[in-house]
Amino acid sequence: MNENLRPVNRIAAPIKGLAHRFAYLGLIVAAFGLMMLGKADTVTVERFRAQATDAFAPILDAVSRPIATVNEIVTEARELAALRVENARLREERARLLQWQAAGRKLEAQNAALRDLLNFIPREAKAFISARVIADSGGAFAHSLILNSGERDGVRRGQAVVSGDGLIGRVIGVGSRSSRVLLITDLNSRIPVITEQSRTRAVLAGNNSVRPVLKHLPAGIFVVPGERIVTSGDGGAFPAGLPVGVVVSVSDRGIGVQPFVASDRVEYVRVVDYGADAGVPSGRTAAARPAVQED
Amino acid sequence: MKPSIWLRLDHWARRLTPFGLSLLLVVINVLPLHIPSFARVSPILAMIAVYHWAIYRPDLMPAYAVFVIGFLHDLLSGVPMGIHALVFLSVYGVVIWQRRFLVGKSFIIAWLGFAIVGTGAAVQSWVLISAFNGTLVDPRALVYQYALTFGFYPILAWAFLRWQQAFLKAE
Fold first, then answer.
1. How many CB pairs under 8 A join A and B?
2. Is residue B34 one of the residues assigned to a domain?
3. Are the CB atoms for A255 and A213 separated by under 8 Å?
4. The complex's ipTM?
5. Considering the entire predicted model, what is its pTM?
6. Which of A134, A280, B41, B122 meets the CB 3.0–4.6 Å disulfide criterion with B144?
């Protein structure tokens, strides 16, 4: 504050100022260097990020719990107020779902019979890893979550992350006790999908808005609003048939998809342990695999 | 007479608080609040801290501390590394450059200054992120995010001023 009080400072101050200026410029260059490094060597930077995030995971885990509790209380209070209406709605829904259950059972039996006929070996998901969301941010530019499960729990890079309603994203960075999930709405997210009715393959591309868009559709294919989108399983890392979203808008600017999951409401997610040994089929599977495309 | 070890420890602990509080704000920033769409427009709290301490106590908020705060922000929030380190350093640089004008002015002037510097920071981060991704990203969420950051400024700045009076005055 009072720099010019002593005569020594009168000489030292400009030198100090110069040193400060150099340090400042050095830091600016370092920040640019970091960005270049992030662009050039994504894998190393993501690994570093995962390990550094690991160090903060216990803090985030601890601090996010009270917030979740408060949230639960608020939600419960709100639900309590609307209990009657909710009950009536659920009765109605139950009646409708019972009809669906009957239809589903019939189709399941039919499907099993047809699979027997074809000698079809499905690739089922091996297991689910449950995890809690301990950080959700990135602001306007990065749509990602941090989970409190990592390598020691069996989470691997590339695995699909789902909640009860559908696909949330995929794991892009894994530390030993935490992992980062890239949401399907992020600018860098690309998910191979298929339309449920017309069986058209496409890529669901995030664009940092709430509605990702369908890209790379075959020429001459029309998709109508209301059509459900599920994962196609192309590329091998994802199980096929995970619900993703529903087409809500078709325009010149693209085909907008509303995801089934509002990822900012989710507290617990499941990581689908599927791709871990997907590349190494067991002997039985390899021998018995018929020449049928699996969907 | 040399001050006792405890006195010096207390002195240093107090001097570290601006940096420590800023790091805390970075962590608070990424906590999942489960409010719909809030994570996309959550205010950048650490930027307020950098701006405030650069005006009132630049001796306690050196440039490398600003770099570390920005770096941690990038690390935890998942945006490309270095972007907020650079944006925060730019905010810091502008404030130090115009410090003579900003220091000792009324609260409204400081707030206005933050709005101007923050707008520059928003444009800068949009340019950086667009260049990094090689595409013009949608700026709408960013506009809301910075609007919220301006809105949060008075609350945090008030808290910082109180903190300053309570713990950093006797020097």
1. 157
2. no
3. yes
4. 0.84
5. 0.81
6. B41
